[in-house]
Design a protein that fits this description.
This protein is an alpha/beta fold and 194 residues long. Bound molecules: 2-acetamido-2-deoxy-beta-D-glucopyranose (NAG) (2 copies).
């Protein structure tokens, strides 16, 4: 498990579960140089990675619950582009790739979610999560300021953001996603963000 600490506040607030009701609802997520602030409260959050396609949907509630019982507040996962976009514009969200179902399971457990949309998966995953077909699009250079790469990355990223919005999964919509990340493990000195 990966642990990320948002750590700087003297005021520490935790999520408590009361009977079957969850109090981890986040409407307003902001931050300053000291911490994340959720609904006006500074938060110390512990996150753990559960990469949804590495197990089957039937295992997800149990894995999420185990993380919760271990003291985790936030589940984080990459979004696995090469499992979701099988060829340009042809999408797969079935079975182990049912991202919406996974995020809803996290929500039902009363936990937050960090969505690492990628595109790069720095975690022992084929081709770093980039679809192999993109390698054959003429002129493509991965993970650089390159037009074909940026075009397909933007297309996929937009698709995922729209899907999450449509399902009302972002915190301001009442969902569990408090943070979304584009571009994992890049040296930003050498990279022009889209
Ligand atoms: C969200 O929280 C911030 C800081 O706590 C506050 O300044 C802002 O007004 C809040 N926004 C809304 C829409 O409630
Ligand atoms: C992404 O590209 C596909 C075709 O490859 C197109 O149908 C779709 O509208 C594009 N989506 C976005 C969000 O630009």
């Amino acid at each position: 498990m990966n642990f990320f600490f948002f750590f700087f506040s003297p005021f520490l607030f935790f999520c408590f579960l009361t009977s079957s009701f969850t109090s981890c609802f986040a409407g307003n997520v902001t931050y300053d140089r000291r911490s994340l602030i959720i609904d006006g409260q500074r938060k110390l959050l512990i996150s753990a990675a559960i990469h949804y396609p590495r197990s089957v949907p039937g295992m997800w509630p149990g894995l999420v619950q185990t993380a919760k019982e271990g003291g985790v507040d936030v589940i984080e996962s990459y979004v696995f582009w090469n499992g979701h976009e099988l060829s340009p514009g042809k999408y797969n969200f079935e079975g182990r790739y049912d991202l919406v179902k996974f995020v809803k399971i996290v929500q039902q457990a009363g936990m937050y979610m960090i969505l690492r949309i990628g595109p790069f998966v720095a975690a022992e995953w084929n081709f770093g999560g980039v679809p192999v077909w993109l390698h054959y699009v003429p002129g493509t250079v991965f993970r650089t300021d390159n037009e074909p790469f940026k075009h397909y990355m933007q297309n996929f990223t937009t698709f995922i953001v729209n899907l999450m919005k449509q399902e009302k999964l972002f915190a301001p919509q009442g969902g569990p996603i408090i943070l979304a990340q584009a571009s994992a493990s890049l040296n930003l000195d050498n990279f022009q963000l889209i």
